[in-house]
């Protein structure tokens, strides 16, 4: 009930439409329930007494009731549609905004495909349940109560006959709903899997074609799709079973009432008009029970979606700005004070252990280490994409947890290991760094990142459409655009996470030269190539989540075995049985490996 109340609260100003819809359904039902009484009077009074004026008057009243019921029904449809689609829009917006607040740790709890399903399919289920189920949800109980009252008013004995059938229908509804309820959760989870396969294939469609894996992907989709079909069939086979049960009960009740009613008419205890009106109420009551059963099934499915949406909305955001948060970062100094980190509190091992480093403002620092040594994780603690498990990270002399998150991340630019561009033009992508940047500022950043080398070749220049995810540019061009975007932030700390791995050696050297001219900015460079960081003020060597060595290029060559191994392996390559051969460029081709 808490989750339902939470979802209903998102009606917002559409709550008035929902309340008006409820009132209109009640009024519509009341008008419809008056019609059988008028019809009974026409038969028992007007027809029996051959009173044409009475028949006409009562007939006109029936017509007025029918027209009023039609008008209120049409008005209901309008308000119900506004309420349901308004609720759907608010829920999608609330989920989307909530995801924007998530930290990386929060995002680790959900698959991307599952979040998409929760914002689309699950919201649609709730939306349809409200739109399609709103009327029977209100109308069913109202007609059931009024119908029972008027049926007892017309003939209490026949009403008792009908009451014997109702428990059978109620038990059938409860049994079916209890069997179907858990299947709806399974159904939505299967939709997640289908979306996951589709998203993965579309994202990696070029790799699929390059490796000629189209048949494999089709087979994988067929398997998941057939699984969804089988789950849907099993779920809805049980769900629709309620209709035969309810109709059997309805026709059994009608037959018994006609039998006993006929006997009472023959015995003079009941009039034909009363039986006709009573049968109308019986049909109304039984139809209301059918509506209620369908509503239960709709609610059962929507409850699974309500729970899944509530998981997104109720996910506790573990990174928030404190009260009285600092909104200004003094400088670009960075200090790691005995920092340890693990991604999950229950993880047995730390990713980073007892990291203590001091990076002065304006310094250029390189970070080297093998795959899995924790390089990316380390720099993600600086803009507080994750929080340190133990110890303290300070930027500008203050704990990062003391800053307003937006202010801290504005002062720290990071070019992520996985380059991300968005649908739109070059200009629109670059302005992610500074929405107010002029074309002159954009072009200056492009020159620093060496984007100008290919920008003139793009049709339209800054107005060139990059396509979804930047598919219209190469990996190296994408990296340079991401660097230019970061430079436009004019940050106090800028982090390059292996962000030149796809560019050639000459371009890498040009970018480093341009970055060296930046003053007052702390530059932290994660690299695979020693030559990318050998001119840094200090180089940090990580090994298995620990700081192995810190120093300049020359100091590390003399003191760090790990650094010497990295340097030597990049200066020379082995051929055949360990023969040493110098590469043409003095260093091997770059490798942008995952860490």
Tell me what you see in this structure.
This protein has 595 residues and is of the alpha/beta class. It folds into 2 domains: 2-314, ABC transporter type 1, transmembrane domain (ABC transporter transmembrane region fold); 334-582, P-loop containing nucleotide triphosphate hydrolases (Rossmann fold), CATH 3.40.50. Helices cover 60% and strands 11% of the residues. It is built from 21 helices and 12 strands. The protein has helices at 2-8, 15-47, 52-101, 104-107, 112-119, 121-154, 156-163, 166-203, 205-210, 214-239, 242-266, 272-314, 375-380, 405-411, 426-430, 439-448, 452-455, 475-487, 505-516, 553-559, 561-571, and strands at 334-341, 352-359, 364-369, 390-395, 398-399, 412-415, 493-497, 522-526, 538-543, 546-551, 572-575, 579-582. Strands 6-7-8-3-9-10 form a 6-stranded mixed sheet. The protein has a 4-stranded antiparallel sheet with strand order 2-1-4-5, with no helix packed on it. A hairpin with a 3-residue loop joins β11 (572-575) and β12 (579-582). α5 (112-119) packs across α8 (166-203). The chain is elongated and about 120 Å long. The two termini are 45 Å apart. Residues 574-595 have low confidence and may be disordered.
What is shown here, in short?
With 595 residues, the chain is an alpha/beta fold. The protein has helices at 2-8, 15-47, 52-101, 104-107, 112-119, 121-154, 156-163, 166-203, 205-210, 214-239, 242-266, 272-314, 375-380, 405-411, 426-430, 439-448, 452-455, 475-487, 505-516, 553-559, 561-571, and strands at residues 334-341, 352-359, 364-369, 390-395, 398-399, 412-415, 493-497, 522-526, 538-543, 546-551, 572-575, 579-582.
């Amino acid at each position: 009930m808490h989750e339902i109340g939470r979802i209903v609260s998102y009606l917002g100003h559409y709550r008035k439409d929902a309340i008006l819809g409820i009132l209109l359904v009640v009024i519509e039902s009341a008008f419809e329930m008056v019609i059988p009484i008028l019809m009974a009077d026409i038969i028992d009074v007007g027809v029996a007494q051959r009173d044409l004026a009475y028949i006409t008057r009562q007939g006109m009243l029936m017509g007025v009731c029918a027209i009023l019921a039609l008008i209120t029904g049409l008005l209901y449809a309008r308000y119900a549609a506004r309420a349901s689609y308004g609720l759907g829009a608010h829920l999608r917006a609330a989920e989307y905004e909530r995801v924007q607040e998530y930290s990386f740790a929060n995002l680790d709890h959900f698959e991307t495909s599952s979040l998409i399903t929760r914002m689309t399919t699950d919201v649609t289920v709730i939306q349809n349940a409200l739109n399609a189920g709103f009327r029977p949800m209100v109308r069913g109980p109202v007609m059931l109560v009024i119908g029972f009252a008027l049926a007892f008013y017309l003939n209490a004995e026949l009403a008792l006959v009908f009451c014997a059938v109702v428990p059978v229908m109620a038990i059938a509804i409860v049994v079916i709903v209890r069997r179907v309820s858990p299947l709806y959760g399974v159904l939505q989870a299967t939709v997640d899997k289908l979306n996951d396969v589709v998203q993965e294939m579309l994202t990696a469609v070029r790799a699929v074609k390059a490796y000629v894996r189209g048949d494999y992907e089709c087979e994988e989709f067929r398997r998941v799709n057939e699984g969804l079909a089988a789950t849907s069939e099993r779920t809805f086979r049980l769900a629709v079973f309620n209709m035969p049960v309810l109709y059997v009960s309805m026709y059994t009740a009608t037959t018994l009432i006609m039998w006993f009613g006929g006997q009472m008419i023959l015995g003079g205890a009941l009039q034909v008009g009363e039986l006709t009106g009573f049968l109308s109420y019986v049909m109304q009551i039984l139809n209301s029970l059918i509506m209620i059963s369908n509503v239960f099934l709709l609610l059962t499915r929507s409850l699974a979606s309500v729970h899944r949406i509530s998981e997104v909305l109720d996910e506790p955001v573990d990174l928030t700005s404190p009260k009285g948060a600092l909104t200004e970062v003094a400088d670009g100094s960075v200090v790691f004070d005995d920092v340890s980190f693990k991604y999950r509190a229950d993880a047995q091992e730390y990713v980073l252990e007892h990291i203590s480093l001091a990076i002065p403002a304006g310094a250029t620092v390189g970070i080297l280490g093998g795959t899995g040594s924790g390089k990316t994780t380390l720099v993600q603690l600086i803009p507080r994409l994750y929080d340190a498990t133990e110890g303290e990270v300070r930027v500008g002399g203050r704990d990062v947890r003391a800053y307003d998150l937006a202010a801290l991340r504005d002062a720290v630019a990071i070019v992520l290991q996985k380059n991300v561009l968005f649908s739109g033009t070059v200009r629109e992508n670059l302005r992610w760094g500074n929405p107010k940047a002029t074309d002159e500022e954009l072009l200056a950043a492009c020159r620093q990142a060496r984007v100008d080398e290919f920008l003139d070749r793009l049709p339209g220049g800054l107005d060139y459409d990059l396509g979804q995810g930047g598919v219209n540019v190469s990996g190296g061009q994408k990296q340079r655009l991401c660097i230019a975007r970061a430079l436009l932030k004019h940050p106090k700390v800028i982090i390059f996470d292996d962000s030149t791995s796809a560019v050639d050696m000459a371009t890498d050297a040009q970018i480093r030269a341009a970055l060296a001219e930046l003053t007052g900015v702390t530059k932290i460079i994660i690299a695979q190539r020693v030559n990318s960081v050998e001119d840094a003020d200090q180089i940090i060597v990580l090994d298995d989540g620990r700081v192995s060595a810190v120093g300049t290029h020359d100091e590390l060559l003399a003191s760090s075995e790990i650094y010497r191994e990295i340097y030597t392996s990049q200066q020379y390559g082995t051929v055949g049985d360990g023969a040493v051969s110098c590469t043409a460029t003095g260093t091997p081709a770059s490798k942008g490996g995952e860490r």
